Give the backbone structure.
Amino acid sequence: QVQLVESGGGLVQPGGSLRLSCVASGSIFKINDMGWYRQAPGKQRELVAAITRGGITNYADSVKGRFTISRDNARSTVNLQMSSLKPEDTAVYHCNLYVITRGTDYLLRGNDYWGQGTQVTVSS
């Protein structure tokens, strides 16, 4: 089994910064894509940023130039540095990892895993 633990959310004023982290643990063979999604009240979950194992990144247009995603493969961690935050960034942020695990039959399998979510509130 794989567990994801997120941290770093909170309340921040407009223009402020926050850093989110997501650490994976368990029977991990390898982690491929990592990403952050968010869901605001009454809205659908949307992709914020993603990063491949090789470091190629992808951002939602609304966060380009303000957010930076990074990963540490050795520590099974993905981070999201958020700057110049706006009220419209308020949402619950979830990390999403595609994790390859090795079963007791020694076969490799890939699955999507989600973090429990961390609240980010941008308000004065």
Summary: The longest strand covers residues 91-102. Residues 47 and 64 are 12 Å apart (CA to CA). The two ends are 41 Å apart (CA to CA).
